[in-house]
Amino acid sequence: MSKHEMLETAEVVGERAAKAEAAVQRLTRWHDDFPTPGVRFADLTPVFADSEGFRSVLDCFAACAPDADLVAGVDARGFLLGAGVAAILGTGVIAVRKAGKLPPPVLSREYTLEYGSAALEIPADGIDLAGRRVLLLDDVLATGGTLAAAAELFTAAGAEVAAAAVVLELGFLEGRERQGNYPVTSIVKL
């Protein structure tokens, strides 16, 4: 991507992010001490249930990597985002699943999160990922383990993570610092 194209992309992302940010701020429901004490859970269901709010999030994400040829959504709310953005971009979509949800063979990465540990998987065969430019989507960037593990899966499969995007970023947890050499867009940063 040329410098001019990168500036145009940043401009479009900025315009679309402002609209999406307003919707996310207005519609997100917050739950303290869920799923465990000390964690503040952001329920994005009302954002996704609102047609204008959902579309603004999808439009913002699509502008993050308009040249991606595959969109990946991280389990589970990322599935909704990934499918919508792939439809806008005219690409395929792949679900990054929690461990044990796909038949073998799989590529797997374990990671830690703010309230435990988990693993993510993608198919190890059946989808040629070598050389593909992937736009990686998730709902929240907290400690960064989930997004980083997903990116590592695609890199291990020979793909390039073109960009990553999240609806909410909990900046105080410094999850952005765990990400690789790809741009990360967050609609709302707390």
Automatic annotation (TrEMBL):
It catalyses: AMP + diphosphate = 5-phospho-alpha-D-ribose 1-diphosphate + adenine. It is an enzyme of class 2 (transferase). It comes from Nocardia terrae. It holds the Pfam family Pribosyltran. One of its GO terms (cellular component) is cytoplasm. GO terms for molecular function: adenine binding; adenine phosphoribosyltransferase activity; AMP binding. Pathway: Purine metabolism; AMP biosynthesis via salvage pathway; AMP from adenine: step 1/1. This is Adenine phosphoribosyltransferase. NCBIfam families: PRK02304.1-5 (NF002636). GO terms for biological process: adenine salvage; AMP salvage; purine ribonucleoside salvage.
